[in-house]
Amino acid sequence: MSETIFAKIINKEIPSDIIYEDEQCVAFRDVNPQAPVHFLVVPRQAIDKLQNMTAEDEALIGHLHRVITELADQEGIADGYRVVVNSGVSAGQSVFHLHFHVLGGRSMRWPPG
Ligand code: AMP
């Protein structure tokens, strides 16, 4: 898998607004926010898209979700937020390093576009 812009952020080769990091993941604010709060939770391990996760990644994906709940508290959106994963080009994925969008701070509509 070729290095993506998220690998450069994780490796601190380019700047970003990091709000959390641990040994398994990094979370930073989306550069083009779609809600008052919009951050990305990204595993350090480079999985290109959700569809290509394996059984070995199950604990990692669970950890990312626990981090999401802690950051939702930290960011003041725990009452209601949306978690989005775009898996594949037709879903709108543009960076091929798995990431979870977390959006909050406004009312969300359904269905998404
Ligand atoms: P996706 O389209 O689901 O792959 O989402 C990629 C997201 O990464 C988009 O919401 C972009 O705004 C965001 N993004 C791209 N480059 C950066 C960057 N350098 N720092 C923070 N967010 C970024």
Can you give a write-up of this model?
The protein has helices spanning 5-10, 58-74, and strands spanning 18-21, 25-29, 37-43, 81-84, 100-104. The mean pLDDT is 97. With 113 residues, the chain is of the alpha+beta class. The termini are far apart. The radius of gyration is 14 Å and the shape is globular. The chain binds adenosine monophosphate. The site of adenosine monophosphate has 11 residues, from loops.
- Per CATH, which architecture? 2-Layer Sandwich
CATH topology grouping: HIT family, subunit A
Number of helices: 2
Estimate the global geometry from the Cα principal axes.
globular
| Average pLDDT | 97
| Alpha-beta content class | alpha+beta
What hetero molecules are bound to the protein chains? Answer: adenosine monophosphate
Work out the count of structural domains.
Answer: 1
Given as residue ranges, the uncertain stretches (5+ residues, pLDDT < 50) are none
- Considering DSSP H and I runs of 4 or more, what fraction of the residues is helical? 10-25%
In CATH, what is the homologous superfamily?
A: HIT-like
The ordered H/E elements are HEEEHEE
* Rg, Å, rounded: 14 Å
Number of strands: 5
Q: What is the CATH first-level class name?
A: Alpha Beta
How far the N terminus sits from the C terminus, by CA atoms, comes to 29 Å
Defining traits:
113 residues; alpha+beta; HIT family, subunit A; five-stranded antiparallel beta sheet; 22% strand; binds adenosine monophosphate
